[in-house]
Amino acid sequence: MKAHEDGEQSVITQTVAASAPGPMTVLAKRARLAARTLATTPSSARDRALWAAAAALREASATILEANARDLEASTANDAFRDRLTLTPERVEAMARGLEDMADLPDPVGRVLEEWTRPNGLRIRRVATPVGVIGVIYESRPNVGADAAGLCIKSGNAVLLRGGSESLHSARAIHAAMQAGLRAADLPEDAVQIAPDADRAHVAEMLGAAGLVDLLIPRGGRSLVERVQKDARVPVLAHAEGLCHTYIHSAADPSMARRIILNAKMRRVGICGATETLLIDAAIAPGLLPLIVADLAEFGCGFKADAAAREIVPDLPAATEKDFGTEWLDAMLNIAVVDGVDEALDHIARYGSSHTEAIVTSDEAVANRFMNGTDSAVVMWNASTQFCDGGEFGFGAEIGIATGRFHARGPVGVEQLTTFRYEVLGTGQVRT
C-alpha cells in the first residue's frame, strides 16, 4: 500500500511540476502588471528613472567592468566578437549618456498623431500608446540591455531581457543599475527584468508567451534571428543580417570616397551597419580602386573581389557567389566593379538584406535614382553606413534595426516602441 501511495504521489508531483509556469512566464506576468503602471506614469517620473539609472551605471562602473572581465575571460570567440562583448569605461559612459539623451527626448506616449472631425460632429484622434511588454533576446553585446531598458522605460513599456551566456555577468550587472533607477523614481522594478540564467529553455518560453509578451526583438546572429522568426507565437521585429553596401559612383569625389569606405568598413567591423560590399563604377575603378585597397589593407582588411576588380588589382583573392551573400562582421570586404547605378542596384537587390546602403556621388540626380531604387530600411548619400544607429539618428539609442515592411523600419527608438489607439469624442451622437 505504501509503495502504491508513494508512486501515486510521485505522479502527482510530476504533473504539478509539468504544469507549473516556467521562470520567464512568471517574470512576464509580473512585467505585465508593471507595464500597466508604467503606461499611466507621467513622463517626468520615467525621465527621473532614466537619469537615476545613468547615475547608477556610472557609480557601478567598476563592478560592471569586473563582471565584463569575467565574461571575456571565459570567451574563446574571434576578435570581432570579443569587440562586441567588451566594455570599457568609455562604453559604460556612453550607455549612461544614452539614457540621459533618452530622458531629454519628448514624451512619445500620448502624442496626437492625427485628428479630424466627422460631418456628424464626432471628433476622432489617433493617439500614441505603449506596446506593453517587450521581450528582447540578445547575444554578446551587453550594452543592449541598457539601451533596451532605457528605451522601454521612456516609451512606457515593460521589458523582459534574455542575454546570451557569453555576456551573462555583464548583463546582470547592468540590469542591477537599471532597476536602481526605477527604485529611485518610485517605479516598479518589474518594469525591467532579466532571465535568471543563460538556460536556452528561456528563449523557447519567451517565443511561446502569446498574451504575456506583446513584441519580441531578437539581437544576435542569423541563426538566433531565424529561429525567433520561425518559432515565435508573438509578433517579431527584427533583421536577419546587416549585409550593407557602399556604391562609389563615377561622379564621386575620390578623397571623400576613400574616407567614407574606410570608416564604413573598418571603424567597427562587427556591427550590423558595417559595409560588407564595395561597389565601384568601372569608369573610375582603375585609378581609385588600388588606392582604396591600400587604405583598407593598411588597417588589416582582407578582400574578396570579382574578376573585373582583380584585373585592376591582380593580387586580390577571388570572390565566390557565397561571399557576396556573406555578412562578414569582420575585417573582410567584398568588391565588385559595376557599370552604372542600375547595375549597382541590381547587385544590391540580388545579395542585400534590406538593411543599409550608401552611395558616394556629387550627382544629385544619380543619388536620388539610387535612393529611390533600393528597398532597404536606410539609404545614405555621401555618408558612412556606420551612421545607421539610433544614437546617431537622435533617438538616444536603439533597441534594434528593423528591416521588415510593417510597424517600424531602420533604427528602432522610443517612437517606434509605441502603437496607437483611436479616441472618439462625441456630444451625444447615436448611429442611425
Automatic annotation (TrEMBL):
Entry-linked NCBIfam families: PRK00197.1, proA
Pfam families per record: Aldedh
The entry's keywords: Amino-acid biosynthesis, Cytoplasm, NADP, Oxidoreductase, Proline biosynthesis
GO terms under biological process: L-proline biosynthetic process
Single GO term (MF): NADP binding
EC id: 1.2.1.41
SUPFAM superfamilies registered for this protein in UniProt: ALDH-like
Enzyme class, first EC level, given as a word: oxidoreductase
HAMAP family named in the record: ProA
Listed Gene3D superfamilies: Aldehyde Dehydrogenase, Chain A, domain 1 (3.40.605.10), Aldehyde Dehydrogenase, Chain A, domain 2 (3.40.309.10)
Protein's UniProt name: Gamma-glutamyl phosphate reductase
Reaction catalysis annotation: L-glutamate 5-semialdehyde + phosphate + NADP(+) = L-glutamyl 5-phosphate + NADPH + H(+)
Location relative to the cell: Cytoplasm
Pathway in which the depicted protein is active: Amino-acid biosynthesis; L-proline biosynthesis; L-glutamate 5-semialdehyde from L-glutamate: step 2/2
Residue intervals of the Aldehyde dehydrogenase domain: 23-303
Family (UniProt): Belongs to the gamma-glutamyl phosphate reductase family.
Any GO CC annotation of this UniProt entry: cytoplasm
CDD domains, sorted: ALDH_F18-19_ProA-GPR (cd07079)
